[in-house]
Structure prediction request, 436 residues.
Amino acid sequence: MDWHAEDSSWTSRDFGIFRFEQRRTVALLKLESGPTFIRDELEDKQQWDNWFFELDELDTTIAGSKLHVVLCSRASPIFDGKEAPASYISVTSDTWERLTRKFHINREIRRPLLRGADYFTSYYETGKASESKISFIARMSASLPGDLALSLTYVPSKDETFAVIYGCNEEQMDDIEKRIREAGDKTKYPLLLVGLLVELERERLLEKVEDLVDDFTLRSDYFDSESTKIAADISNEKTQEYVSLCFKARSLLDHIKAVKHQLSKLAEEFDRFANESKRTRRFSKYGTLMKKRVNDIIDEYDVKINECKMIIEDTTLATQTAYNQIAKMDSEVNKKMTSTSMDIAYETKQEGTQMRSIALLTMIYLPFSSVAAIFSMDMFDWNPQTGGSVVSKYIWVFAAFAIGLTGITFFAWHLITSRRNQPSKPDPSWEQGKIV
Prediction:
C-alpha cells in the first residue's frame, strides 16, 4: 500500500519530481495589525534573498496573526494548446528548498501535483505546542485548463498561515490577490484559501457546463426533427458534432462527481479543525459559514449534474432513434431484396419446368430421328439385285466413326469436368512461410 509518509522532511528524491525555472512569482503578506497588505514581485535570486531576510525580521518584530501566500506562475506551454503542469515551479531549486522550510510545506503535495486529479486532504502533526502544525492540500483536476494546486500549513503556536498556490496564470493571480484583499479579518481563518480554491473551481466548472448547455440548446432543433432526417445525416460531420456533446457531457459529469466527493471531505474537515484545540475553536463561526457555503455549492453541482444527464439522455435517445430508423430502412430494403429473390427463384423454376418439357420431347423424337437417319443412308439397299446384299460392306466405317466420336466426346467431357472440380494448389510462397 502507498502509505502517506510519516516523516515530513523533504528529500532529494522529492525535489526531483519538480521542474524549476526562475519566473515571476508574487508573494502576499496580510498582517492582523490593521489593513496591512504587502505585495512583492520576485524574479531573481537577489530579490528572493531580500524577501527571506525581511520575513525573518517580521517574525521578530511583529506579533499576531499573519497570512503568507506565494503565487507560483504557470510555465510556458510545452506543446501548442497544452498547458505546462503545475509541478513546474517558478523558482530555482535552492529557493524552493528554503521555501519548503520557511513555509513548512508538507511533502505530500507531490502526490496530487503529479496525479493531476481532484484532491483534498489534511495532516495534523501533533507534538509540543510550539511544534504542532496542521497542513491542508487541495488540487483542481488537470483535465480542464486553468487547474491550480494548494499547499497550506497553519502553525497554531504562532497563529501564522503559510500557503503556496501552484500553476497560476496572470488572470488567476490578480483574482486571488483581489479576493484576499477583500476578505478582511477572515484571512485569519486558515481554511479560507481552501475555500478560495473551491470558488475558483466552481466558476471553472459552471462555465464549462453553461457552454455545453448553450451548445446543446442551439442544436436542439436538430434533435426535434424527424428521425428520418437524423438517420439520413447520421454519417455527416454535423451529426458527429452532436454526438460528441454526449461524450463531453459524460466527461464533465464524472468531473463534477469527483469534485463533489472532495467537497464532502472538506465539509467534514471544518468540524474537525474547529475541535482540534482551544486556539482553533475560535474559528468555529467562520467554519460554520464556510461549511454552509460548501453545501450550497454541492447543491448547485447537483443541478449541473442533472443538466449533464439531460444532455446525455437526449443525445443518446436521438442517436438511438436514428439508428433504429436506419435499421428499419435496412429491414425494408432486405424485405424488397427477399421478394425479388423469390420472384427470380419462381421464374427459374418455371424455366426449369420448360426445359424439362423440352428434354422430354427430345427423348421422344430422338430415337425416331436416329432410326430415320440410319435407314436413309446409302448403307442399306432395300431392293437389292439378285445376289446383292441389303447391308453395304462399308457399314463398318459408319460404326467405327460413330463409336470413335462418341468415345472422344465422353473423354473430353470427363477431362474438362475433372479439371474444374480439382482444388487449387496452395501458393508456394505461402507453403514456405508456414510455421512448422
In short: Residues 379 and 394 are 7 Å apart (CA to CA). The longest strand covers residues 160-168.
